[in-house]
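Open question from group meeting: does this chain pack into something compact, or does most of it stay loose? Before anyone orders reagents, we agreed to write out a predicted structure and look at it together. Recording both the input and the output here so the notebook holds the full record.
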Amino acid sequence: MPFVLIYILCISIAWGSPWRSIEQLPAVITEKDNLSVLEHLKNLSSDQFTGRKFASQGSVESQAYLVSALKALSIPAFNNQYHHNFKQSGLFQSKQGTNIIAYIQGTHQKDEYIVLTAHYDHLGTKRNKVYNGADDNASGTAALLLYAKLLKKSPLKYSVILLFTDGEEVDLLGAKAFIAQQSKILSKIKLNINLDMIAGSKKTKKLHFLKKDLSQILSTQKLEALTQLQNHFKTNSSVNLTPGFRRVKSVGSNVNRANWLMASDHGVFSKAGIPFIYFGVGTHKNYHSEFDNYANINQNFYLAAINIIFQQLVYIDNAMYEGAIPD
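C-alpha cells returned:
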C-alpha cells in the first residue's frame, strides 16, 4: 500500500486561532513511525497471542511484548514497575489481571497528569477460531506505543501516564483497578484520553469522539478553540472526525454500547470525576468476530487517526498550561 506520510503541523495560518498560541508542536510522525505502529498492531493482533483473553497465557505473552517495547524505547515504568496486578474475584476461583503502566515526566507540571488509556485484552478463541482484536483494541494499544516514543523525545508540559489496561472486556476491570490503586493521585489527574477501536474496517469513514467535563480544565476560550480544531478535522481530514456515537446495542458485547459514556475505560475515569475524551470508530461488521484481524483494518484511516488524536493531545496540554499560568 502507499504509506501515508503524516506530518504534525506547526502554526498554520490557514487553520486560524486554535494554533496561534502554539509555536511548535513537539514531534513529527514520520513514515518510519507509521511502519513501526503498523508492525506493533500486526504483531499484537497475530495468532501468537491467541486473542489476548483476560487471565490467559496469550495475555501474559502480550504483557511481555508491551514491556519489551517500552524498554526498547527507554520509557520508564510507573512507580518503578510496569506490571500492576489486580484480582477478579469469582465464586469458585479468582483470576489475576495485569495493567501495564509507563510514565513520562512533564517539563512543567510534573506532579499533574494526563492519562492515556488503551485496553490490550480481547476475547481469546471461540470454536477454535482466534478472535485477534486488531481494531479492538490492538489499534489503540499500538498507538500508545507510538505516542510513548514521540513523548519520550519531546515531553508534554504535563506528565503522561501510559495505561495499557487489562480486563476492559470483563466489566472494565483494569481501569477500575487503576482508580482504586492510585487513589492518592486522582486529584492530580487532569484528563483521560481513551483510545478504543481507532482502525475500523475497510469501509470505516468516521472517527467518533466523546468528551465530558473539559470545562474543568480549559477556559471557555480554549474550549471553543478546541472545538474549532475538531470541526476542522471533521471537514478537512480523511477520518472525518465526528462528535458522538450512534446509540446501537451490539450483539455479543459484554458492555451495552448504547451507553457510550460507559462503553470503555473512560467511563471509569468519568465516574471518578476526571474529564475525558474518548476516540473510537464505534461498532462495525467485524466487531467481536474472528474477522477483526490485521488484514481487515483500514490502514490509511488508522494512520490519519493517530495523527489527529495526537495533535489534539498536544493542543490540550498547551491550553491547560496556559490557563494554569497566573496572570
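Observations to bring back to the group:
Residues 17-324 form a domain with the Aminopeptidase fold (CATH 3.40.630.10).
The two ends are 51 Å apart (CA to CA).
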